[in-house]
Design a protein that fits this description.
The complex is a heterodimer of chains A (about 325) and B (about 525). Chain A is mostly helical and about 325 residues long. Chain A has a domain at about 95-270: MetI-like (MetI-like fold). Chain A has 15 helices and no strands. The longest helix of chain A is centred in the middle third of the chain and has 36 residues, at about 90-125. Chain B is an alpha+beta fold and about 525 residues long. Chain B is about 35% helix and about 20% strand. Chain B has helices at about 1-20, 25-30, 55-65, 115-125, 130-135, 160-165, 170-180, 230-240, 255-260, 285, 290-300, 305-310, 345-355, 360-365, 380-395, 405-415, 435-440, 460-470, 475-495; strands at about 35-40, 70-75, 80-85, 85-90, 95-100, 140-145, 150-155, 195-200, 205-210, 220-225, 245-250, 265-280, 315-320, 365-375, 400-405, 420-425, 495-510, 510-515, 530. In chain B, strands 11, 12, 13, 14, 15, 16 and 17 form a 7-stranded mixed beta sheet that branches. In chain B, strands 1-10-9-8 form a 4-stranded mixed beta sheet, with helices on one face. Classes of the chains: A mainly alpha (about 325), B alpha+beta (about 525). Chains A and B meet through helix 3, helix 4, helix 8, helix 9 and helix 13 of A and helix 5, helix 8 and helix 16 of B.
Amino acid sequence: MYKYILKRLLFLIPTILGVTFIIYAVMNITPGDPGRAILGANAMQADVDAYNHMLGYDLPFLQKFVNYVQDLFLKGDFGISYFTKQPVFAEIWPRYGFSVRLALMGALLSAVIGIPLGIYAAVKQYSLWDTVPSVISFLIAAIPGFVVGMLLLYIFALKLNWLPSYGASSLRHYIMPMLALAIPPAAQNMRFTKSSMLESIRQDYVRTARAKGAPERTVIWKHALKNAMLPVVTQMGLTLGALIAGAVVVEKLFSLPGIGSLIVDRIPFKDEPVIIGGTILLSVCFAVIMLVVDVIYAFIDPRIKAKYVKMKGK
Amino acid sequence: MKKKLALLMSLLMVLGIVFSGCNSPAETDAQNPEDRVLKVRKKNAMMSTDWEQTTESEDMQITFVQVFEGLYGINEAQGGYVNLLAKDVVISEDQLHYTVTLQDATFQNGDALKASDVVYSYRKAMENPRFNYVTSMIDSVSEIDDKTVQFDLKYPYSPIAHTFFTIKISSEREVTEAGASFGTAPHTAGTGPYMITDFDMASSIKLKAYDGYWRGEPAIKNVEYVVISEDSAAVIAYENGEIDYLHDAPTAEWDVLTAAAGDNCTMVMGNNIRCISINWESKANNGILADELVRRAICYAIDKEGLNLAVVGGRGVIAQEYMPSDYVPTSPKASDQGFELYEYDPEKAKELLLEAGLTAAQLSEGVDIGTILTYGAQTGQNAKIAQVIQANLAEVGLTCGVEVLDIAIASPRMHSYDYDMAIFADSGNYDFNNIRQQVHSESVGMAVVRYRCEGSPFDGERIEELIDQGVATSDTAERVTYYTELWNIVQDSATLFPLFHAPVGICWSGDVNPGDICPTYYHLYSLSWK
């Protein structure tokens, strides 16, 4: 198992290289330069060129890429922001922590709402407990987080005046962003859990458990749910990754200091070090989440664990 | 059952704790004026607390006006430049030497303002390429005594008032002590009415009134700028009482805002003028825009009134000049009829197109003239302008596409003349010499049309002569004469055409006296609590 984890961690290196290369290539082909963005519209072109030269922005694409990769892997240096002149890591780390925290809360809430509803809908198939949540989840899954956020702002901030509409200085500030993040994936979780559970409760081992006289609660929770959770765990991993990287719209709407909004804010300034550093952290995070999902698999499904043990034995 | 009840009770308790104290944020604010905080909306994160490093206009509203001061200030409410840290300015007869006597001001750190601080700030700015456009005429700045500074110019330069406004004075001691980290944290290096006490780049900037401010302590003691990027969220925050002052309020939401604000809002003419530029070097349809008659036809085909109505609900002000002549004394006046105004006349546009050799059949089918390039949101003002102009042009038989890009992509294309037509905003300052950035051959990277280059059909040499003559005299009437001729050349070329002044909406809470209403550089100093 440890060998597998190590192997997967090593796989992060080509992932980072690939992400860095793609971002560098994209930034390289888009017009504009940091010199103009920083010095402003009134600066002479010669001064702008000199500024870009000072930043090393005018170096050939491959040379810039190699220099960056060397600094990143050999010194762990994400570089200095073109715009604020601050070390990139110091800028992105607090924002990253905030995004992870928000996404974790959102993913947890989406699981808390979606999974029980999915289980219940599957167990009570064709009843109102199935039809109503299924129709609602179908509708909600089609609504973007931004619209959910606007609705929440309208209801809880403007009409009820219960919650603040911006900022992140207290727990209350997190409620609406968390809901805006959690509601669309909760609907997905519900649908996913329901279909997975339906498949599971029709399996022979569930029928066998019932035939053996096991109480219905045990049949559902111990036999059906445990097996139905495998695809749900994958879905949750993907949801968490998507929430960390994709919360930018919600971050912007609620004025939250997340990594997504930082990256978006720096794109007009072509602040490559921040954009690339932030993207690398996000991709590493996504890869780690997928690794954790794989490890959880092993704990949920004894067959997978046995496979690892077998591999170790060889 | 008991378990379920316990669960329900726990949930209610958690919700109770979370929502406790969820009454209106306005109600939770302290009522004592000394403790009350004026909350101002800011659209974007603030990048630096150093005026030299701020490039974004909202950041400049904070650093340029509230925290730092220049020798001159801008008074948009009444128009023109006013003395600020300069108590008195004496100009030599040859207009090459400016002797400035300083006010008895102090920095927020308590140090007295000295001539050496002015010299330090100017020398530093002169080394910063960002400010070349306002400092390149300065030969040297020297300290005569503790309160007197002398500026020696390389050549007479009458728009120097804009330099005196743009360059702010920082405390030499504090900036030097902070070194490279200056601008990354709160400081007390300005002489302005407010000092920055808390700086969180991502979410807020807190200001505190400087009690030793040389013009008297500000009435509002605490200010917090909160970053709210989304317009709709900002409107909700204002309606909800979480924001006290909303400058440059979203015009698309103006009806909602006025309903919420009642009398506590106004809309003023912005300095920002939306223009269309027509690139004579465009390759579209075999270089059709190189034909002056076609370009003139485009100008005649544009219905500015309709544009104003469609884009900003008629709240803008039609622009006939590059800068509003009513508060830029050096600006040519439309009322003097010294240049072509291109009043909306689609029939004349059609005549010009026929004169250009296009046939009626071609025009009824639609003649392609390329694409209108602009930037901003797909539903933003610039995009709407482009769409309305597209429809105007279609009425006279010209067809074009519309391309709306992010400013980071569109702007470099405009400045490298890689477009057919472009919609952009040119913010005025208060001297017509600002036109230099649009028409001078040295304004590479700033201008969107080339007037002096190989193959140019325009008298670029004369344009540049007029610019030089305009800055060489301080006689306003003489300058207006030069600039009228210059603007006439530009208008005859039908390459740069002003459309309208976008309106600027300002809303404030019922507890606030809004003070001087300014479209760009508002002064928190003039605000007070009711």
